[in-house]
Amino acid sequence: MSKEKLIKGINAEVAACVKCRLWNQRRHAVPGDGNIKAEIMFIGEAPGRQEDLRGLPFVGAAGKIFDELLHNIGLSRKKVYITNIVKCRPPGNRDPTSEEITTCTGLYLNCQVQIIRPKFLVMLGRHSAAFVLSKAETEVGGITKIHGRVYEINPFGFPVIAIPVFHPAAALYNIKYKDLLEEDFWVLKSEIEKHG
Which residues of the chain, if any, have pLDDT below 50? Predict the structure, then answer.
């Protein structure tokens, strides 16, 4: 089966999913978006208000920062694939629970990564970083300690270059995180150039 059909199938499953309690408050599930042949995959945490309204990842204020970060290193949404560890918005933008993460990643994220098979995985935020790195049995520290590090790991059955970074929403609340995010995205650019 083609990647297109496989991703369409996942998207349809996500849209109809009622496997955890997040479904009953969502307007739209947010399966993912972008280039399914991308070598670079970004994994965020959960949809926010704007994402829930539109059904697309990173389209709110944090999405503007994300687009700017991509642009600064010569990328665009057309060249990457973007998703989250959970596909529905937690109420009040609270953190996703471990049960929600386990359910959603087991059903959907693991499959998405297997279909896309990226060379680079960029984890946006602590929940995403913790999920991917623990899957690779790599020691996980707080995002402030591990952001911008490069991990050559095999969490999904094939090797990837994984880079944890701050979530773009962090830059909305503290300008210093914007500078750190920019530095981390330059690490990504450097790794792309090194392994491209």
Answer: none
DSSP state letter for 130: H
Decide if domain 3-195 falls under CATH 3.10.450.540. no
Q: Are 4 and 84 in contact (CB under 8 A)?
A: no
Strand residue runs (E) in the chain: 33-34, 40-44, 80-84, 120-124, 151-153, 160-165
Cα dihedral value 22, 69, 163, 81, nearest 10? 60
CA gap 117, 84 in Å, rounded? 16
The candidate with the shortest Cα–Cα distance to 87, out of 108, 106, 111, is: 108
CA–CA dist 29, 32 (Å, integer): 9
H or E stretch covering 196: none
Q: Is the dihedral of CA 25, 19, 8, 169 positive or negative?
A: positive
**All structural domains of the chain with their residue ranges:** 3-195
Residue 30: both structure tokens together:
């947010």
- Give the CA angle between residues 74, 76, 82 to the nearest 5°: 130
- Looking only at the bridges linking them, the beta strands covering 40-44 and 120-124 are parallel
151 and 161 Cβ atoms separated by less than 8 Å:
yes
C-beta of residue 28 within 8 angstroms of C-beta of residue 55: yes
Res 62: pLDDT? 93
Neighbours of 50 (CB within 10 A): 16
The pLDDT value given to residue 139:
75
